[in-house]
Amino acid sequence: MVDSGGLWTPPEDELGEALQTAQVLIEEGRADEAGPYQQRVIELARERASDRPDHYEAKHLMAATQYELAGSLNASGRHEEALAALHEAQLGYTELSDAGVLDATSFLADVRARRAMTQAHRGWGATAVLEMDGAVIAYGQLVAGPDSVHHQPDFARVLAMNALILRRYGDPDLAVASADAAVQLFLQLATQINESAQSLSYARYLCSATAVSADIHAAEGRLDLALEADEIGLNTADTLADSESATDLRTLVAALARKGRHLSVVGRVLEGENCLRTAFATDPEAAQRVVDELDRGIPPSLTTALETAEIKLGPFEQYHRLLALSEPAPGMTLATVSGRTDPESAAVRAAELAELVRPLLAQDAESALTLGLEAHYLFAISSERESHRMRYETSTYAPIWARVLLDISEAYHAAGQTEMALDLAGWSAEVATALIPFTSRGGEVADLAGACYRHHGDLLAAKGDFLASQHAHEAAAQLQT
């Protein structure tokens, strides 16, 4: 989203020209080229605000441009710098909110959503899922409020982003629910969106939502729904390709390849081959990426993983309680992990899921990782919402959380997914810190906390962050003294 509302209007000078150039490049799908212009906007706005602490227009412009700069940095593969820009944007919006000059709810939700996409780009999928969960919940509250119409297009955008992340790092059932909701909302808002200055950006998010929808429906055998999504995505991508942007052309190629594969599956072989032939003739690399992604398939859903656990481990008492997580909690729509249950129950269900992970890892690692991630997400949501159990029964739940994080991080590392392993190891180290007050009660908790620190330290060292690795190992050593 381009933040063009609120306190400022673009001035007619160098700053305004740089801002306009950056926005045009973004709309044309050339975000990777917009960075230098955005940097100049930030410099000029900072100069104007330097001697005026109450120059809120300039501060708003800096926050908005830092947010947009993060998108440009992501497009250039500079994800660490993008996270730094998003931190500055968050600080700026929070300052404006604290000063009472701006309702920053939607802006902070956007920062969180873009941070989620940034984390996903760098492979930190567990953090990405939770960041995006918060963004979707924030927008869900906004569209339920008095200014609903204004926020609906961006709610659809955030749902599409959520679907992309959940497809790779979460439950595909949640991903397809989020994607379908995004597609439906985009179509309902077509007239409003087409009149918007951001219509091209919204169209790109519609394409991403249809891709997730088509992939998961097809994988689950719902081929009529998959082809329906394919048709919407292909028509939208075809219109986008008129922009002559290389990014939009790749989107069209991806839509063609995806539809070609799905047509072949339903027996419309000649149509499918024609789509694939056109896709590979236009951009073989982009077409092959889609084919490879479809060949990899989707991870097990929570329901499938629970069914596998019952087969591999035998019947277990909590099966039906955990299966109920696949239905939305009262008053919730099931497109996010936090929609599964209330924060108090989340900790209990997470502990029950965690019991299954270690014995299942030896028999079906993929299903075990699904259950482990879902346990982590529920623990994290319960903790973020400051549930009674996570605040006052820390000694009961935090060790279970730490153990499941350590187990699945080690499993991801063994599978060669080092970034995901490092992400989860960082979470385990944070939980280990919460365990420190309880380490004096016995050696087992201290050993667990130490193991979390050491594992995190080992992965940091492997990544080349030797100073942080040293600190982690020192924290582990202190628990033994």
Automatic annotation (TrEMBL):
UniProt-recorded name of the protein: Tetratricopeptide TPR_4
Organism listed in the record: Kribbella flavida (strain DSM 17836 / JCM 10339 / NBRC 14399)
Taxonomic path: Bacteria, Bacillati, Actinomycetota, Actinomycetes, Propionibacteriales
